[in-house]
Amino acid sequence: KTQIRLMNKKKKAWRFKEEEKSFALSLYYNSPKGYLFMRRYLCLPTIRSLRRWLHCLNFTCGLNDNIFEIMKNKFTSSTLSEKAVSIIFDEMSIKRFVTYNSQNDVFSGFEDFGAIMETDNNLLCDQALVLMVKGIKHPWKQVVGYFFSKGPISGLKLKTIIMTTIKKLKSIDLIPKVIICDQGTNNQKLRNLLQITINEPFLTFEDEKIYFMYDTPHLIKSVRNNLKKYDFIYKNEVYSWSDIIQFYNIDKNKTPRLAPKLKEQHIQLPPFSPMRVCLATQTFSHTVSSAMFTLIANNLMNSKALNTAKFVKMIDDLFDVFNSCSFDEPKIFRKPLTDNSKHWVSLNDSYEILTKLEIQNSKKKQPPCISGWLSNINSLKMLFNDLQNNFEFKYLLTRRLTQDCIESLFSVIRAKGGNNVAPDSSKFYSAIQMCVAQQLLVPPTLAYEIDSTFDDNLSAMNIAFIQLELHEENSIAYIAGWACSKLNHLECLDKLAFFFKKIDAQVQID
């Protein structure tokens, strides 16, 4: 009927009904190349029209039914393994500010939980909770809802939101297998309400187990923060931050250095730096542990530091197991988990140590980060067995079981306002609506493809903070000058010559 109705009209006069738009999107998701081919012979909307329709979605607070309907069309022909997904959620601080939305004739800036639960419209919001669904077997992600609240959302409300999300995903034939969040107090309350324990880190919904995991980048930061405050004891072994300080003081004056990435910032942790994952992973690294072993073997460090070096190595291996991303990784624990891989031995050894680990704090009990690691280890074992037996998984990329994707989304939202650290609710709405529309237009990739570049690698950002001496600056300038002299493009050489005439030389080269 559509083709008969439009065939005698000019393209600019084509108008499509809602069901025709839905059909076009479904066709595009199945094969973008096939869609472009069929547009030669059928009356179908352009890709630009599809994008414009998605941008016009009314993405109000709550779980968006339009998005779930589009996702249903996306995965109609997907296999069972491709429908296994994770639910990821996190909160972001926003500015308390009331604005008027002329398009919807409403004031924004107040608490809003959508249609899920009652809302107190008299409370100004300062937190935004975002829920994202992400594929486990192949790389795709989709924001499905957001909520505004005053302060962190309570564990009871979180439970209502999560259970509603699970029901909606099941209604469109997607299968949630894991819930991922950080260790905020409200999230720990949610964990208790769901009756999650270390030995049974899952909830059961319609005879299907859904596993609960904490974000591992947050866990490794918490371990670093606790080790900086208190000594750890396992049997007769003492793990101390003072050993890492001693190693840094010895190594920092060496040329060349054994651990060149370790800087004063890693040791002192000035304000805001404890939030950076790379500072924790560069401290608990193979380079630092190997360097400590070397100094101890050469009697340049106290032999008691050997225990701390072992602990650093254990945390590094444990984090790598939970951060596997590609078969091409040189580190064995960064390779995907398989049935017979060496990851399981490392997990069992780490579990045994962490179970008996004592923290020398005033409460004399393990902090949440240690119990979080124990829960994650058990959850990962059970999840892999479940995926292998019931969903035909041959391997698992654990980097997809982190919050990196949602942290990256928050970075994009802040950047939309010109590096606005705390946007107000209206700016947040505009930014997230654009991000959601872009995600909806991405067709699902093939299940057997491994696209590690798609995953947001915030936890893998090993950024070196280099503090150069004068002779080092001169060396770099000399090398850069030699590289520029090898340029063959005359236009480039002319522009470089003109550039150097305009500036005063800041680095003198002998």
Automatic annotation (TrEMBL):
Residues 218-328 form the Transposable element P transposase-like GTP-binding insertion domain. InterPro entries: THAP9-like_HTH, TNP-like_GBD, TNP-like_RNaseH_N. It comes from the Eukaryota. Residues 60-194 form the Transposable element P transposase-like RNase H domain. Pfam families: TNP-like_GBD (PF21788), TNP-like_RNaseH_N (PF21787), Tnp_P_element (PF12017). Residues 6-53 form the THAP9-like helix-turn-helix domain. PANTHER family: THAP DOMAIN CONTAINING 9, THAP DOMAIN-CONTAINING PROTEIN 6. This is Transposable element P transposase. The gene is T_41.
